[in-house]
Predict the structure.
Amino acid sequence: MLTNVEHIGIAVRDLAGSNELFAKLLNVQPYKSESVESEGVTTSFFQINQTKIELLEATRPDSPIARFIEKKGEGIHHIAFEVEDILGEMERLKNEGFILLNETPKAGADNKLVCFLHPKSANGVLVELCQEKKKT
Ligand code: ZN
């Protein structure tokens, strides 16, 4: 089950500059910054009430974020939905005809297991499923 929008991801060219911009916009400072080297990305997270915004800056020219900005410019990159059972949802959505970009959940930022759905199967929207990693 998808339970809520967990965050909205925004691709930016200059994370430091965008941190300042979004701190002004949201009137709150980012609560964390984190690099996911496997994805070639540095992220920072803002939170207001239940809403999170993830800013994403590429760390190398061949990363997905760099390619996205090259093609489309800065802007909204993905919508992430919280799920309770990521494997079950991946199976369900695959059976519904959505294209999964990864066949097994992978480690994302902010202590999450994530899976992305191809935008071409979702009206041009890159959809992220994310599940809080269970504390062991
Ligand atoms: Zn995300």
In short: Residues 15-26 form the longest helix (12 residues).
